[in-house]
Design brief:
Shape: globular
Strand content: 25-35%
Distance between the termini: 36 Å
Order of helices and strands: EEEHEEHEHHHEHEHEE
Helix content: 25-40%
């Protein structure tokens, strides 16, 4: 690396490239998020939004450099500083909603994360399902649980893939308020989505993926 890696930036991405099935999905992408940044990621289907988020989480092979507060993506140190919530969030089928919130909240390492995750479960309408298991939850409820755990843990970096897709309108507004508060407290958020009404009200900046690179949104 030709330059020092800043621990002041929450996310620093340099010349990120990903090839899948012989096709270049991301091509020399640069991106930087500082504390307080909230970025809404747009792009057509197949533009690489999910690929980018998975690469930033260290879940797929990539070329280039990705650092979370100075820690290389994919390392245990970087994973402790970030939380990736995919479009269809995987859950432990033998853990109830309450157990997900308390156990995964404690794993986050943040004091009070378990209580905060339980509070988010209640705010997102899961109070009556608190002792239910994932098999008894709808897709939207499963997504709410995954987001509640992420928000409760409040890591420096939240990576969210289409977090609004399965949510009702009230839960969408609660989530947007939570993400705004997370950024205001010094965290950073990178969320993908296609909802134009949300994009216009997004509290931070917007980026569009096209041709494997990040561009300003179309006007």
């Amino acid at each position: 690396m030709s330059a020092a890696i800043s621990t002041e930036r929450v996310l620093e991405v340099r010349d990120l490239s990903v090839t899948l099935g012989g096709s270049r999905v991301l091509d020399g992408l640069d991106l930087s998020l500082a504390p307080g940044d909230a970025v809404w990621l747009e792009g057509a289907n197949g533009a690489g939004k999910t690929t980018l988020l998975r690469a930033l989480a260290g879940l797929i092979q990539s070329d280039g450099d990705v650092f979370v507060k100075g820690e290389r993506a994919g390392t245990s140190a970087a994973r402790a500083l970030s939380r990736f919530v995919p479009d269809t969030a995987p859950l432990y089928e033998d853990l109830s909603v309450r157990e997900h919130a308390t156990l995964l909240g404690r794993v986050s390492g943040r004091a009070g994360a378990d209580a905060a995750a339980l509070e988010w479960c209640e705010r997102l309408g899961l109070a009556e399902r608190i002792d239910h298991y994932p098999a008894a939850l709808s897709r939207g409820m499963r997504q709410k649980l995954a987001l509640a755990v992420a928000l409760g843990g409040a890591p420096p970096l939240l990576l969210l893939d289409e977090p609004l897709n399965a949510l009702d309108s009230e839960s969408r507004e609660l989530l947007l308020a939570g993400l705004t508060a997370h950024a205001a407290s010094g965290g950073a958020v990178l969320a993908s989505g296609h909802q134009s009404d949300v994009a216009l009200r997004w509290p931070g900046r917007r980026l569009r993926l096209e041709g494997g690179v990040a561009l300003p949104p179309e006007r």
